[in-house]
C-alpha cells in the first residue's frame, strides 16, 4: 500500500510539473480532485439512486428535458465548430499533429475549446440523473455508466497536459456525434407529434461505431511514426476507442440484428447505446 501511494504521488507530481502553464487558474484545472470527486459522486448516485426512487413516483421532466437537450445541441455544436476552426480546418494534419503550446490566438482558441469539451462531460452526467429520477432504470446500462463516468476525469489530464493536437481528433468527432444525438433527444422529448422525424434512430449507433473505427485507425498510425506527442495519450485514446467500438458493436448486434425471440418479438432493447430512448 505504501508503495502504491508513493507511485501515485510521483505520478501526480509529474503531471503537475509537466502541466500546460496556459491552463493554470482555469476553472477546475489546478487540481484533479474536484473532477475525481464529482465522478465518484456520480457512481455513488448510480448505485443508490434506484433504491432512493424505489418508493417514489417518476419525476415529470418533459420541459426540462426539452431545454436540456436543446442546450446540449448548442454546446456540442459550439465545440465541433471550434475544434474545426482552431485546428482541423486550420492546418492540422491527420497524421502527426503535436500540441501548439504557444500563446498564439489559434493555439489558445484550441486550448479553450478543449476545456469546454471537458466541462461539457460533467453536464452530460445529468443524462443519468434524469433517467434515475424518471425511473428509467433499464436505460442506466453498463455502457451508459462507463461512458459517462470515465470521460470527465480522463479529460482533465488531456486539458492539463495536451490541450490540442492529435488527441482532439476524437473530441471533434465526438462533438459532432453528440450534436446529432441531442438533436434526436430534443425532438423525441417534444412528444408524439415529432416521432415522424426520428426515423434515423438506428443510424445513430452506426455513426457511433464509425466514430470509434476512425479514432482507432487514427491512433494506430502513430504507433508506426515518430511524433512529438505523448505516447501515453496515443495508447489511452486508442484503447478507449477499441473498448467502445466493441461495446457499441455488441449493442448494435443485440438491438438491431439479433433474431426475434420465441413469440415473434425482438428483444426489448429500445434505448440507444448511450442509454437514451425515443421517450426521453
Write the layout of secondary structure elements.
Blueprint: H1 2-17, H2 33-53, H3 62-88, H4 105-123, H5 126-133, H6 142-161, H7 168-189, H8 201-220, H9 231-257
Helix pairs in contact: 2-5, 2-6, 3-4, 3-7, 4-6, 7-8, 8-9
> What is the helix tally?
9
Inertia-based shape: globular
- Mean pLDDT, rounded to whole units? 89
Topology as a string of helices (H) and strands (E): HHHHHHHHH
Can you give keywords for this protein?
280 residues; mainly alpha; 9 helices; globular; disordered C terminus
Description:
Helix content is 64%, strand content 0%. By secondary structure, it is an all-alpha fold. The protein has one domain (59-257). It comes from Littorina saxatilis. InterPro entries: ELO_CS, ELO_fam.
Summarize the structure.
With 280 residues, this protein is mainly alpha-helical.
